[in-house]
Amino acid sequence: MTGTLTCDVAVIGAGTAGLAAERAARSNGARTLLIDPEYNGTTCANVGCMPSKLLIAASHAAHAARSTAMLGIEVDKVRVDGAAVMQRVRDERDRFARLTRGSIADIPEDVRLTGRARFTAPDRLELDDGRTIDARAIVIATGSAPSIPDGYANLGDRLLTNDNIFELEELPARLAVIGSGPIGLELAQAMARLGVKVSLFDRGARLGGIRCDRVHAALRSEIEADMDLHLGVDVEADGKAESVGLAWSGRSSGEADFDYILVATGRPPNLESLDLRATGLELDDEGVPRHDRETMRCGESAIFLAGDVANDMPLLHEASHGGAIAGRNAVACPVTIKTDRFTPFSITFTSPPVARIGKSEEDGLVTGTADFSDQGRARVEGINQGVLTLYAAAPDGRLIGADLFTPGSEHLAHMLTWAIQQGQTATQLLEMPYYHPTLEEGLKQALRTICAATPIELPQDQDRGEPAGT
Q1: What mean pLDDT comes out for the span 273-285?
Q2: What are phi and psi of 230, to 5 degrees?
Q3: Fewer Cβ neighbours under 10 Å: the N or C end of the chain?
Q4: CB–CB of 219/350 below 8 Å?
């Protein structure tokens, strides 16, 4: 097949970011072309957010069933049907993926091109079927893929990533997880709470990018209660007929056999097949085009990035936002419209969840910490564990960031992120009502510490006494 197609905006990749970019460009009057080799749905629906949360939901149920004795409820022996767990994960995953494919099918047929694209010039693409595309602007939204370190690629079907772990028909007996970032933490704890013997390994000394020592200590304690943890180690793998042998050394050392190895060492951007040399773009040390996050434009070119391929905030809400920014600016190019980006925040769905918001203690002068080990509502529910730390700027106590590992922290994180994005102070948050008994009350301790360290007094018209355990 040959021929040249023309358009105002070509979008490479039909994931969350690419769909948002094409939608934004077309809604702003552009003639668009969307290019994807499979149109199989989004990373989130297929191998990311949704299947992982389905596995985590099963682990929550198993853990809760084993933890009822403190409430005076006796449960007979808990049995995990691994095949049924994994079947539900796939069934529900497939439903989510089917819905995303349905939304893709609503895009006009003449907009959707099936194929792989590479650059032959800054404004020209060539598809693998021989067709070429001349575009006034191009959005790269090709996503990311699991990184497989040297020494693991020869492990065959014993090697797992988040792209294939959900295809397991049964839960393994022994699982090694390499990497303690969000994917590694979530899947390691979920598998452990479903009865899998899990060992978690990482070269670094920190879990999940947590910045506060107290929050990290609380997270580490919980993770170590569920599995063997080895931080600050180098790992070597040796494939065997029915297992994988691992040897590790560093802060600890040892050897063990596992049924599978889950590699969760990051998802670098998909850029290799694009032939970026033909664009003349300036690339950073990791081969990603340098771009402005407020416009998603690469230098002074008519090329834009969106989503995980930008290699900065690989999160669905950021991909969606970045795609909309890129699509609108691709239409307006060479004029660009700067957009204030969201306050950065991420959530790792461990139990309790980990959340990281905005700036760190190094960027502020005031911190406030709240310990949830005796927090009222958390203790009622039997989930009283974890710590949060808030970071604020002097002299007014304006909130700038937080690290959380507490019950309900996925909800508290939203509340705090909204407050930070709106420039609110600790005093302003204390002027809001807090229902009793709730987890939200747990913020008060940290907010009051910030107020006490600044010239701004606590609200004078509020009762300074509190019910015990809040």
Answers
A1: 96
A2: -130, 100
A3: N
A4: yes
User: In angstroms, what CA-CA distances link 298 with 36, 127, 281?
Assistant: 21, 22, 7
For 387, the enclosing helix (H) or strand (E) is strand 387-393
CA pair distance 334, 468, nearest whole angstrom: 60
Residues in the chain: 470
C-alpha R_g of the chain? 24
Binning pLDDT at 50, 70 and 90, where does residue 453 land? confident
Nearest residue to 218 (alpha-carbon basis) of 407, 387, 340, 89: 387
Structure tokens at 353: 């969840």
Burial class of residue 42, CB neighbours in 10 A (0-12, 13-18, 19+): buried
> For 68, what's the count of Cα atoms within 13 Å in the CB-facing half-sphere?
12
Rounded to an integer, what distance in angstroms lies between the CA atom of residue 399 and that of residue 390? 7
Write out the DSSP string of 225-265. Answer: HHSEEEESEEEEEEE-SSSEEEEEEESS-EEEEESEEEE-S
Q: Comparing 144 with 467, which gets the higher pLDDT?
A: 144
